[in-house]
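Human: Respectfully, please carefully check these tokens:
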Amino acid sequence: MRPEEKIILALNTNSVDRAKEWIEIFKKRIKWFKVGIPLYLSGGTRFIEKLKEENLKVFLDLKFHDIPSVVSLSVEMASKLNVDMLTLHTLGGFEMLEESAKIAWDFEEKYGRRPLLIGVTILTSMGKAAIEDITGFDVEKGTAILSNMAKSAGLDGVVSSPLEVKKIRESCGKDFIIVTPGIRLTEDASFDQERIATPSFALKEGANYLVIGRPLTHAEDPIEKLEKYIEDIKRGDKK
């Protein structure tokens, strides 16, 4: 996998026009694009269809979290949209995750394809102290517990901050997919992210994909900044 293929560009906007501008800038180098709740509410399924028409990969980040029957139906509909990866909140519980995985596997058996199911563990915007206040447990222990539950339920991987990747990799094995937001070069602002690290650090710890948004989309020279990220990814690949 080439370094740039490990980048998922986060289209963190509610403007379809702005998202299209970012896609035009980056699509020659980046093939993965993350569509979150604001953009999905603005652009709907048609926006996703347009991305697929351009042979781009869609990471649908709607963080499904509801009763098992509702979430499994949502996974089925997302599968029909031909998205390549989607997120579910692991805190929805084992039954919710397991039913969703079964729907995805049934879809693959019928149509020969399915999205990768990725469980959200603990948001990178939350600091360690806040997590411990709310949950009563250490963030590393918590993400390990949630990741193992996701794997047992049949999910393909999880989302976690780069700081918890090593623990998850040790616990869940080499084939489990780990997607890491909170990726920043040392020169970049953290924005509203708390648990952050460089691309090279995340990859050395065992991450597979790096979600990068504002450091690239809001850069004065986006392509120049992208090249800096790619260089750091190459350093991480030399592990």
The two ends are 15 Å apart (CA to CA). The first strand starts at residue 7 and ends at 10.
